[in-house]
Specification:
Blueprint (H helix, E strand, L loop, with lengths): L1 H15 L1 H22 L4 H21 L1 H25 L4 H4 L3 H14 L7 H22 L2 H23 L4 H7 L3 H17 L1 H6 L6 H34 L12
């Protein structure tokens, strides 16, 4: 009898541990990507990823609120990234047909590495682009309790991970590529968007009967806002030097515009 009681207590405590939901999110990220990739559709891929991510987010929110939800989506982003980069390396030839914006993003990033001119050369345009993207993301998160914003995040993660995978295959200095292929400001942006998306889900979640602590929601908004600003600052300050280091660590090949 005592053993059964101890098992129930252990299970309850495990379910209250935020790391549990980070692990659940990680598994959902890997599984959602795997099923989406096997569908063979560039539209089904982020949709299935988003549904699995939202599942992890929803159960974490129900148990622990906004911060638990953000941790679950963080795990989902990690699981998606870890699994997809591994698979992209093996199936490089299928990337462009199965990943939205993969080719356009890769070519823009390779042009940055070849030319040495990045977003720091046009700070106002870069800031305006960030602001527009942020407004759409926050609107999607608010209107869908974070579902649509997770789908948007899946699209972003996929084309960024596809670029990282292709870059790593061309690496001359592998550890430089491993450290710099995922730009530091991009990592900050993903974290910031995860926090903001979870916070923006609060109004609709409360309407469905799952309110969150306003203190925790405000904390996520505050930290996410700092992350958004830090993302822009790091991009403007570091993109030139990071681009040079990365360009020297890979075989870029000829420009597609070369004659």
């Amino acid at each position: 009898m005592q053993a059964c009681e101890n098992e129930r207590v252990l299970g309850f405590r495990l379910f209250e541990n935020p790391l549990y939901f980070a692990v659940v999110g990680t598994l959902c990220g890997a599984l959602g990507f795997r099923l989406g990739w096997r569908s063979g559709s560039r539209f089904a891929l982020p949709l299935l990823q988003g549904l699995f991510g939202f599942f992890a987010f929803a159960i974490a929110w129900r148990v622990g609120g906004a911060i638990f939800g953000a941790l679950a989506v963080g795990g989902w982003a990690f699981g998606t990234t870890f699994y997809s980069i591994h698979l992209f390396k093996k199936e490089r030839d299928r990337i462009d047909e199965r990943v939205l914006r993969a080719r356009a993003y890769r070519e823009s990033m390779l042009a940055w590495l070849r030319g040495g001119r990045g977003p720091e050369s046009q700070p106002l345009i870069t800031a305006r682009t960030h602001l527009i993207e942020l407004v759409f993301y926050l609107a999607a998160a608010t209107l869908s309790a974070n579902l649509l914003s997770i789908v948007m995040g899946a699209i972003l993660l996929d084309y960024m991970n596809a670029y990282v995978a292709v870059l790593s295959l061309s690496a001359r200095r592998k550890w430089t590529v491993r450290l710099l292929a995922w730009n530091s400001w991009s990592v900050v942006r993903v974290g910031a968007y995860i926090m903001l998306g979870s916070a923006c889900a609060a109004p609709l979640a409360a309407w469905f009967g799952y309110p969150a602590s306003l203190t925790r929601v405000r904390w996520l908004l505050y930290m996410g806002g700092i992350g958004v600003v830090l993302d822009l600052v790091l991009k403007l300050l570091l993109s030139r030097s990071c681009g040079r280091l990365l360009a020297g660590a890979v075989e870029l090949g000829p420009s597609p515009d070369a004659t």
